[in-house]
Amino acid sequence: MTELGARLKEARTAKGYSIDDLQEITKIQKRYLAGIEEGNYATMPGAFYVRAFIKQYAEAVGLNGDELLEAYKTEIPSPSNEEVTKNIPATPSRRALGGRSSSKFMEIFPMVMVAVFIIAIIIIVWTLFQNRPDNPEPEVANDELVQEQKPTFEDNENVKPEEEVASEEEPAEEVIEEPEAPKQQLTFVESQGVTSTYNLTNAESYLVKVVAVNTTWLNIRDENDKILVDQSVKAGETFEFDASALSKIRIRLGHAPGNTVTINDEIVEFKSSEVTQNAVIQFNK
User: Fold this and answer.
1) Which residues pair with 201 in a beta bridge?
2) For 227-260, how does the pLDDT look when each residue is reduced to its tens digit (9 = 90+)?
């Protein structure tokens, strides 16, 4: 075994490859691989293949093939000029190249002609489209057809004045406007102590709304002094009560300042400056 063969075998073993594995990787017959490790180059087809197989073997096991060939060039047979020439593929002659080029040109020539023909058609169509007038004027075959016919004397007699035509038309129906419904009125009547009295007229419904800025106690009674609402309304809350079925209510706020009472969205003003206020609303239906 040569020094080169020993180094290659050592690298193969370090990689964990067998000769069969290396044959699968390099596609080199294992008898040639074994011959490289043993330094038996006589089994090789020639010196050219010896160098090629050694380089391929080295690269498969992680070594630099060119460096190995240079380092052990005295142990490796050099190929002769004749052998190198035999393994280099012959360059085709100029005549062969010319013939091949000519045949290829003849193959693509019909396609080139078709492409040129299509391009020429596109150019012609585009040119005709560009020269097309934007607004072609219709041709008049006979000038007499386009002359405006003047009305005759008989036609003028049949034309009635606009005033006569208007008088013959049926009179337009008169539109009777319905009178507007009377608007709601909240009228102040009197103020006695902490109680303010109001009359509400021209209202279909009676919606009481309390918007509390400050927490207050709310009490609502009907015309018979029956308690309908008796609760606290906290700051930031809005309380609503429908009194449409009643004829009179009394609204009492335990803390009136800052809070708002409306009936049908119309503000009920408390005339007293006391903290506790009453508002009596009489409904005139």
Assistant:
1) 185, 284
2) 999 999 999 999 999 999 898 999 998 989 989 9
Hunting for tokens 């809005």 — which residue is that? 238
* Distance of alpha carbon 40 from alpha carbon 154, whole angstroms: 133
Distances (CA, A) of 263 to 41, 80, 120, 139, 228: 120, 122, 88, 79, 16
Angle at which helices 30-38 and 3-15 cross, to 10°: 130
> What count of other Cβ atoms lies within 10 Å of the Cβ of residue 40?
15
Min mean pLDDT across 12-21, 61-70, 174-183, 249-258 is at 174-183
* 51 lies in some domain: yes
Q: Specify the higher pLDDT residue, 182 or 238.
A: 238
Rounded CA-CA distance 86/80 in Å is 10
Last residue of a domain, one of 42, 61, 87: 87
In a domain, 119, yes or no: no
Domain boundary residue among 87, 112, 130? 87
pTM, entire model: 0.38
Residues 6+ apart with CB under 8 A from 40: 34
Supply φ then ψ for residue 106, to 5 degrees: -65, -30
Domain that holds residue 31: 3-87
Give the model confidence (pLDDT) of 195-211 as tens digits.
998 898 988 888 889 99
Q: Residues 259, 253: contact at Cβ < 8 Å? A: yes
Which residue bears the tokens 């594995």?
Answer: 21
